[in-house]
Structure to design on (1188 residues):
């Protein structure tokens, strides 16, 4: 009953008009051919696949779920055929190195693909999604021999990848992990242990799964400095590339979850499975972060994807559902009631969704472009600046996309009243599906601690200084513009509050070791809101340049931007107060009194 | 896997220490015997039933759900036996008139019963829950003949009640309803139409269901002024009280819902079913509101119930789950990690839950005591004041309890990380179950419009003036107390902001017909936060009086109250800003551009 239309016009707006992506990307070595036309063609093809193939399987996949029988995981009906089309279309290797058969396209485009696939079918998207990070880690850290065997099949999508981190007793704190890897003396290792919550750990979509597994070598130091990364295939690969015997990897069970029921979340048992070391001994966590950063951005995109889907369906319902009369007089006096979109409250919910989604889309695209620049720009200082910005924005994109995703899907469910609570309308599925995005790939608290702990501290605050410099340039460029004052003013204030709060936190946390944990979530949200305001300033600047075009698309941008500044951004006032309450309110209650 | 322990100490604290309920209640005619001992005994009995009988069926009921086969609805395994114990224990008729076999106990006690039953098993609680309102409406508006036939069986729980309001095309706007009632000439009516979303519309728990149905008489005016209320039994009742033939009432289907799966949500078909008029022709909506106010408070209690359940289980998990180290040094250096309750972020989530739950419990109890006073106090002016306060607080209790219920269950799920997303741990069920409470018995927007439209306007603002007078007395009494300054100060500020905002809204809405709808949800939340701050002031006043008792229970109250004032109440700052943005941000985008 839900529908999805890829928001191509909005995507092209941020890509071409706000960020002039063609100019930036074609200047990067290897992207010379990535013209606006190429990008548009890719987006249109992806939109068709998402609308026609993946979205029709979204509700049926939720209702059927995955099955686990006789050790075999089966994805819902239709997923296998859809995956075949997906992989044959080259989508698995969109950004992968052409040496391995990849298309070598920018991360910027990959973001839009992730958003569209996520909107169409969040569960489906996890199967190829986990391969993305796997490929990155192998390409960056594995030996040439391993790359030659595994990369082409992952790129083509014939095989899939999975990330095996979590164990029953260790999630956020990976230092506790117990899975062991014993050297066999021939360069391979015997991997033994149990991993849980393994997305796409197994399925009937592909013949082989390439597991990346965190485990400890016999001589490993305790804690997170003693973790190594191993490649453990489900099926061994013969010298000719054909599949051989089964490795000692098996699925123990699949989880019964709140949502993403079409995605198999596996308990994986490694019973002396043969594996190969990836990267240096005891440096597994660093290798894993190569894929984790990509996956974190991916999860942010998933959050946005559900907000977009929820918004679209709520708008349709709000225009269709007749109930009550407009407060300023009947809009359809000949009908028994007006559509509920006449009510300011319904509009508040819809505009909250839209003003957040559009800003997050712009921000996440921007962050992905920084990744492209950081990978390819000829100038080292430019690469570093871009890498800094991408690093700073990664936790914000992940926690922001997912956190607002939960809020927005809930708001849009509410537009449907009782129908929102009923399965057939599809809204409650979005709430259930998106909920995991606040948890996996590092909970949103882990993201906020990454921001407030690691990212603020790096290079003596270099990342935040870079952010402040870049946004200051925007304010300086635009603050004389009367026509933009209603946008630039609130952004400038938010930025000043963020700067002051950052300074306060840095100072306070010298004295108070609990301060960061006490304020990190509120701080990340304040940072995310400020970033969204920044994006709105850039978007309305672009829209204003077209104000004489007669195209109402640009008028809408101004209205939605105004909504953000007046009805969303004021959240910062409260966050500021809560942050400055410090850690005492949380810490003063003795544990026994909880 | 979840556990529930009724928070009896907290309940007794607000009942006896904060509100001196014995003194207030025993002064009311008919409640002379309701001593503190009687109340405590009732609470303890209820706690046992909830902990030992109802809660063990909560997760199994969710997993099994209700079934609908051959026209018959069956509740999950165990519900029938549990219901038998529940009704035989006299819980169905707790507040009902002793003339009909009821126990004639105060609404104040009924609130605690609703909270405990809701925590134990939200789905189960809906079966007897809907009977409550049915009994109220029959007792207040039906003929003596109808009362004689139906009340004793509803009071004993042998039969159940159901409210039939919503139709496929009309939910919030009941003026659109189409169900018809044609007079048979013998004082009975032929009722025809389809009703949807009918909680406890049918089940195998009882032999008869007493439906209250909104329908139109042939000469009915259009809109909501042409709606009448009918009593339509599932089974006819013989003169000797035994059950006769089946009435033309049937279940069309049951809904597949996000949650409350153990509760049957029915599509009800009335195919010329015989019914009896309740109250005056065309005055059905007013009769329905008799039961609706009770049910709205009940839904608020349901919200609180899930917050309490989520809090309890999250605390247990947070004390048990070892992950990471305390920021200010390891608390359990001999173990591999510290329990996550050492982290300020986890404590923030738990304390947010607890500080809101405790304030909402106090507020909802207070509101129920006002209902008792409004029903029974010998002085008419006192009855009116109490009725005003109960009327003002009803939408706040409903929308506040449910809205924070969704937030808090989600926060507590997050404490569990990935385990929170998995069915067996039970946290995701709470999120799914509580979500309906924001929708049914009038969506939270309907509540906020009731507050900002009807309740603010009544008697020239008499209700708000009453609230301001009562809270001003609290501030006046306590503002000289240095030991309470950290509580009274923030409450005073919040109250002043609420007063200013109220004034501004009243003025602006003269000029702007869309203003109320644009700000009502934010205004209700601001009002709810202010009420919670008020309750915290009263609670810390009571706790401070016992500060030399050596009982850490009272220390905890002060810590939790401080958390509320510094980490929750500051939300008001943002709400103030959003409200004052008015309706323009919502209304300026043309419908076509959504």
């Amino acid at each position: 009953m839900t529908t999805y239309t890829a928001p191509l016009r909005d995507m092209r707006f941020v890509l071409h008009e706000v960020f002039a992506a063609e100019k930036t990307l074609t200047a990067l070595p290897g992207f010379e051919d990535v013209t606006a036309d190429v990008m548009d063609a890719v987006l249109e093809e992806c939109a068709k696949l998402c609308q026609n193939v993946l979205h029709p399987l979204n509700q049926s996949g939720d209702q059927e779920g995955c099955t686990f029988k006789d050790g075999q995981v089966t994805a819902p009906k239709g997923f296998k055929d859809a995956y075949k089309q997906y992989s044959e279309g080259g989508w698995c290797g969109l950004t992968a190195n052409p040496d391995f058969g990849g298309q070598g396209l920018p991360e910027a485009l990959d973001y839009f693909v992730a958003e569209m696939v996520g909107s169409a079918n969040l569960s489906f998207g996890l199967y190829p999604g986990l391969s993305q990070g796997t490929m990155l880690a192998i390409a960056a850290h594995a030996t040439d021999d391993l790359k030659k065997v595994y990369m082409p099949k992952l790129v083509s999508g014939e095989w899939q990848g999975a990330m095996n981190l979590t164990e029953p007793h260790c999630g956020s704190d990976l230092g506790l992990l117990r899975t062991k890897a014993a050297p066999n003396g021939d360069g391979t290792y015997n991997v033994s242990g149990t991993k849980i919550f393994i997305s796409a750990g197994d399925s009937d979509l592909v013949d082989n799964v390439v597991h990346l597994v965190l485990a400890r070598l016999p001589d490993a130091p305790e804690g997170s400095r003693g973790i190594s990364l191993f490649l453990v295939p489900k099926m061994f690969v013969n010298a000719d590339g054909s599949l051989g015997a089964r490795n000692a990897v098996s699925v123990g069970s699949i989880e019964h979850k709140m949502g993403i029921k079409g995605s198999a979340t596996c308990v994986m048992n490694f019973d002396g499975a043969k594996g190969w070391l990836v990267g240096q001994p005891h440096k597994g966590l660093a290798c894993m972060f190569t894929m984790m950063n990509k996956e974190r951005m991916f999860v942010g995109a998933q959050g946005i994807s559900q907000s977009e889907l929820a918004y679209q369906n709520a708008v349709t319902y709000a225009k269709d559902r007749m109930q009550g009369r407009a407060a300023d007089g009947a809009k359809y006096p000949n009908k028994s009631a007006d559509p509920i979109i006449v009510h300011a409250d319904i509009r508040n919910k819809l505009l909250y969704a839209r003003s957040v989604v559009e800003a997050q889309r712009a921000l996440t695209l921007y962050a992905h472009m920084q990744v492209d620049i950081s990978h390819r720009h000829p100038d080292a200082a430019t690469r570093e600046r871009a890498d800094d910005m991408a690093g700073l924005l990664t936790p914000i994109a992940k926690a922001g996309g997912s956190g607002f995703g939960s809020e927005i899907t809930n708001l849009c469910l509410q537009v449907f009243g009782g129908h929102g609570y009923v399965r057939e309308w599809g809204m409650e599925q979005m709430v259930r599906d998106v909920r995991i995005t606040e948890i996996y790939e590092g909970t949103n608290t882990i993201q906020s601690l990454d921001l407030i702990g690691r990212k603020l501290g790096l290079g003596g605050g270099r990342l935040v200084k870079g952010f402040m410099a870049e946004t200051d340039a925007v304010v300086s460029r635009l603050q004389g513009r009367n026509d933009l004052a209603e946008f630039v003013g609130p952004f400038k204030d938010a930025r000043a509050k963020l700067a002051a709060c950052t300074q306060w936190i840095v100072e306070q946390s010298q004295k108070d070791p609990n301060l960061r944990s006490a304020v990190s979530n509120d701080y990340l949200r304040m940072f995310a809101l400020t970033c969204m305001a920044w994006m709105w300033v850039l978007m309305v600047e672009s829209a204003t340049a077209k104000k004489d075009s007669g195209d109402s698309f640009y008028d809408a941008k101004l209205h939605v931007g105004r909504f953000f500044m007046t009805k969303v951004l004021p959240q910062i006032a409260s966050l500021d107060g809560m942050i400055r309450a410090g850690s005492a309110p949380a810490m003063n209650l003795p544990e026994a009194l909880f």
